[in-house]
Design a protein that fits this description.
heterodimer; A: Amidase signature (AS) enzymes; 15 helices; 13% strand; globular; B: 96 residues; two-stranded antiparallel ribbon
Chain lengths: 486, 96
């Protein structure tokens, strides 16, 4: 099989057995990019020289008989909101068109220490605000399964690059579903870890109490491997969780016998495409056949989550994005006085969706409205979090759709509120801070369907356990998007 | 209407953003839609419910008082739109 079609763990085995080299793998990926990137447009920046340098270093280590870590020599893509020293980090915004960070995000440092190979920086919705990748200021990324539909967002480039075999693994970020929904739309595995599990240092902030970095991969084993590389406490992120990080690969290769899986009724209601429901019901029966106990449960405040989220996330965004003032870095507009300069800078530098969210957040925080909107939303957040606490007294893991539909047409959703409704199944998880994983569980009209597994705080292990057991019974992860001769 | 064009103009000033006339009305309508949708929160009685700002119960995070490397001045200024004599340069702030 072509090298670009293999997973990280398969490639690692080949490297250790000296059947291939990191340079060959990296070349295979760049050849593949050459072939399909014109159609998919995942990448904003390619770091070819760096990638071949990193690959050569791993090959040299192998030649000397040194042991290598699981991701050493394996090429991956980084979402363009992760700071990379000396490599442009644009957040797909005109505001940061020429921004070259003087430091690395912690996750980038950690992957570099593992000797992973960096192929480049991938497209996203501007400042991670969007659900389709259409809000990029630079280019439209297309879904490898069908070039007329979106790859999802905001980590659309991360998901598309992995699904199109232009990267073996990728990192995304997830504030309200931005890893899981694109994973769902592209038939890949995406994990949003527990809030605090992975350091956010060097992740360009959108909504700081909700943002988390996580992997998008071809299978569950690779997801565990990337988690092993990136998780852990970081003194540079005071919200990162202190204490030991488990070896996530220990969750693999187990069964689900006796495990209690909850189906929250609110997620299987009216808005759900019946064809997706059919696919999910089949997956649920399969898990039952494998020995899991499936019970219905309730997260009664689900219907309030979207409103609470769009007030909290925009309030935090309006504050975080105040830093783009044309002074320290980023775009500067011309202005004779300071206020004029600020206005020109921000009006020219931000796209429409970012402006809309800054406005909404500023309004929700402004004098006279703070109690009615922001404070109210934070109280509702408490109720949503308590829903999950109560559910997890009864069950080990929750199972839901990742998105209410399969990937939609490019340009198919224009109204902002309708776009926000795309995130209805993923948003409550960020508000509660719990971990959740999306994995492929079937197809509707040739497009992948994602199943979301939600876990207790810091219990990514159980998610990976269920996901891996389910994956072993199926071959969805071995199907490839029909693109570029596959 | 939850929000008027005057409200939007006030928030635009606070946000340091400018909108043209046509844009202003479009934004007002869109923000109004979203705020109307958010009215659903008022159906919930949240009397006595504590707000949650953060999902993690972490408070007063301390670390040992050790010096770590930090950015030097040159690196900190490398992305500045305008810099002079080791400082960020901005348009005049105080008149006179």
């Amino acid at each position: 099989m072509e090298l670009f079609k293999l997973t990280a763990h398969e490639l690692h085995d080949k490297l250790v057995a000296r059947e291939t080299s990191s340079t060959e793998i990296t070349r295979a990926i760049f050849d593949r990019i050459e072939k399909v990137e014109g159609q998919v447009q995942s990448y904003l920046t390619l770091t070819k020289d760096l990638a071949f340098e990193q690959a050569a270093a791993v090959d040299a280590a192998l030649a000397k008989g040194e042991a290598i870590s699981p991701l050493a020599g394996i090429p991956g893509a980084l979402k363009d909101n992760l700071c990379t020293t000396g490599i442009r980090t644009s957040c797909a915004s005109k505001m940061l068109e020429h921004f070259v960070p003087p430091y690395n995000a912690t996750v980038v440092e950690k992957l570099a220490a593992e000797k992973a190979v960096f192929i480049g920086k991938v497209n996203m919705d501007e400042f991670a605000m969007g659900s389709s990748c259409e809000n990029s200021a630079y280019q439209l990324t297309r879904n490898p399964w069908d070039l007329s539909v979106v790859p999802g967002g905001s980590s659309g480039g991360s998901a598309a690059s992995v699904a199109a075999c232009e990267a073996i693994w990728s990192l995304g970020s997830d504030t309200g579903g931005s890893i899981r929904q694109p994973a769902s739309f592209t038939g890949t595995v995406g994990l949003k870890p527990t809030y605090g599990r992975v350091s956010r240092y060097g992740l360009v902030a959108f909504a700081s109490s909700l943002d988390q970095i996580g992997p998008i991969t071809r299978d569950v084993t690779d997801c565990a491997l990337v988690m092993n590389a990136i998780a852990g406490h970081d003194h540079r992120d005071s919200t990162s969780v202190p204490g030991e990080t488990p070896d996530f690969t220990k969750a693999l290769g187990q069964n689900v016998k006796g495990l209690k899986i909850g189906l929250p009724t609110e997620y299987f209601g009216a808005g759900l495409d019946p064809q997706i429901d059919t696919v999910l019901q089949k997956a649920i029966r399969q898990l039952q056949d494998m020995g899991a106990e499936v019970v219905e449960c309730s997260l009664p405040h689900t219907e309030y989550a979207l409103s609470a989220y769009y007030l909290i996330a925009t309030a935090e965004a309006s504050s975080n994005l105040a830093r783009y003032d044309g002074v320290g870095f980023g775009h500067r507009g011309a202005g004779d006085n300071i206020v004029d300069m600020y206005k020109r800078t921000r009006t020219e530098g931000f796209g429409a969706e970012v402006k809309r969210r800054i406005m909404l957040g500023t309004y929700a925080l402004s004098s006279g409205y703070y109690d009615a909107y922001y404070l109210k939303a934070m109280k509702v957040r408490t109720l949503i979090k308590q829903d999950f606490d109560k559910a997890f007294e009864q069950v080990d893991v929750l199972l839901t759709p990742t998105a209410p539909t399969v990937a939609f047409k490019i340009g198919g959703i224009v109204d902002p509120l309708s776009m926000y409704l795309q995130d209805v199944c993923t948003i409550p998880i960020n508000l509660a801070g719990v971990p959740a994983l999306s994995m492929p569980c079937g197809f509707v009209n040739g497009l992948p369907v994602g199943m979301q597994l939600i876990g207790k705080p810091l219990d990514e292990m159980t998610l990976l356990r269920v996901a891996h057991a389910f994956e072993q019974q199926n071959d969805y992860h071995k199907q490839f998007a029909p693109l570029g001769g596959i | 209407m939850k929000i008027t064009t005057q409200d939007v103009a006030r928030v635009a000033l606070l946000s340091r953003l400018d909108f043209g006339d046509g844009e202003m009305e479009k934004f007002t309508a869109q923000l109004d839609d979203i705020l109307t949708y958010a009215e659903i929160l008022n159906k919930l009685d949240t009397e006595g419910v504590e707000p949650t700002a953060h999902a993690l119960p972490l408070q007063n995070v301390f670390r040992d008082d050790v010096v770590y490397p930090s950015l030097d001045r040159e690196a900190a200024l490398q992305n500045a739109p305008q810099a002079e004599e080791g400082c960020f340069k901005v348009p005049k702030i105080v008149e006179g």
